[in-house]
Write a structure and sequence with these properties.
Strand order of the largest sheet: 3-2-1-9-10-11
Structural class: alpha/beta
Bound molecules: ligand BJW
Oligomer: single chain
Largest sheet: 6 strands, parallel
Radius of gyration: 18 Å
Shape: elongated
Order of helices and strands: EHHHHHEHEEEEEEHEHEEH
Distance between the termini: 13 Å
Number of helices: 9
Number of strands: 11
Strand content: 15-25%
Helix content: 25-40%
Length: 236
């Protein structure tokens, strides 16, 4: 049994990380294009750095921890006999902190910085700015960007995602609004006989493509759903 899970901002909402498009969404007061495109970074790097610095500091706050949904997925992965692959659109590290092993962060990682010239990645927990010294040569300033995927950029690991989708027997999408592609299109890539389950507070534009659309908080429904699947041998 090959299991593919896709997560979005909703799974981390109950850990204290705001979603993008909810009522208290992260983008309120900010236009998405002001901060999440390569053009915005080229035009207003200080604004974009401030935006990610704030989120990085929030993520590193001791109050921010994985919740029951992250933990249930990590525990499920440990027990599951077949393949398990977790694709997250989130740039936080809460799945990894919860103990998930096979995690692909398709929109990047907030705790990494990328060299604009070489593409080299560095673990990063500090603020970034247009004058941040380069770790390899401190005389070079401001050549690091957040390691995230902005609109118009290619998401990370698409080939692995496509392979996992075509091989999946069970696909679960958790806490994603299904408006950002190609992530929202994964449900279309799975086989006809793949079982599809959506977990979200609300319906989404792709809800009709799922066999089950479960409405409620991820911290409750993810542990419940995984326990139910396991107790029925997964495919009931
Ligand atoms: C709960 C809950 C609780 C709350 N319990 N639920 C068609 C095909 C291909 C591409 C496009 C296309 N049409 C347009 C495009 C281009 C574009 C795109 O999709 N635009 C749309 C806006 C229309 N896509 C791109 O540019 C992507 N690249 C690309 O397409 O490259 C070329 C390509 C072509 C063909 C094939 C392959 C590639 C790149 C997209 C990059 C997205 N980047 C961001 C920022 C990342 C860094 C950062 O975090 O700042 O990623 S945007 C933002 O949206 C972030 C998220 O990962 C992403 C998705 O958001 P998510 O996770 O769904 O969050 P929300 O807030 O939207 O939803 C939360 C949900 O949780 C809600 O539904 C709540 O109800 C729910 N919820 N609390 C359960 N407790």
């Amino acid at each position: 049994m090959n299991v593919l899970v896709l997560t979005g901002a909703g799974i981390s909402a109950e850990s204290g990380i705001p979603t993008f498009r909810g009522a208290n969404g992260l983008w309120e007061g900010w236009r998405l294009e002001q901060v999440a495109t390569p053009d915005a970074f080229a035009r207003e790097p200080d604004l974009v750095h401030r935006f990610y610095n704030e989120r990085r500091r929030n993520l590193l706050d001791s109050q921010i921890r994985p919740n029951a949904a992250h933990s249930a997925l990590a525990e499920f992965e440990k027990r599951h006999q077949g393949n398990f692959f977790l694709v997250t659109q989130n740039i936080d590290d809460l799945h990894q902190r919860a103990g998930s092993r096979q995690v692909l962060a398709m929109h990047g990682e907030l705790l990494k910085a990328r060299c604009l010239d070489s593409g080299e990645l560095f673990d990063w927990r500090q603020d970034l700015s247009t004058t941040t010294p380069h770790p390899r040569d401190p005389s070079v300033l401001g050549r690091l960007r957040p390691h995230v995927v902005w609109f118009g950029e290619m998401p990370i690991g698409l080939e692995r995602i496509l392979t996992a989708a075509t091989e999946a027997d069970l696909f679960i999408a958790i806490g994603t609004s299904a408006v950002v592609y190609p992530a929202a299109g994964i449900v279309n890539m799975v086989k006809d006989n793949c079982r599809r389950i959506e977990i979200n507070l609300e319906s989404t534009p792709t809800s009709d493509l799922f066999d089950e659309s479960l409405r409620g908080p991820a911290s409750v429904l993810v542990p419940q759903t995984l326990a139910r699947l396991e107790s029925f041998g997964i495919d009931h």
